[in-house]
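Re-running Epithelial membrane protein 1 to confirm reproducibility after the cluster update. Everything else is unchanged from the original entry.
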Amino acid sequence: TLFQVWMVGSSNFGAATLGLWQMCNKSCTELVVKSDDEASLKTVQAFMILSIIFSVIALIMFIVQLFTLEKGKRFYITGAFMLVCWLCILIGVSIYTARFTGQIPLSTNTHHGYCFILAWICFCFSFIIGILYLVLRKK
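Result of re-run:
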């Protein structure tokens, strides 16, 4: 299974981790959220999946444009897909930050996990790469 650590906390049973789909303590169970937060969680899940899809499309378009573009042309399509990926990451991680930070049931001393930090790093890099593709020319 895919193991994700978006939030980490301490509980009486040891370290508890919270992902987008599962909560793990000694064993992993499906993530249960309050009914008020369910739509927010589904939105975060959807935008994070969309960001992966758009980044893969951008990679495929880069390879296609690399071999089909004439010299001096720019990678506009690839850049546009990377900026859409950037926007999806921004929306997903921002909603997660606003709604779910520090919310691990029965846990204290909560902090962000490595997947949350990697998502913000990907946010920065996808923006930089998107802009670079828009100004990059094939030589």
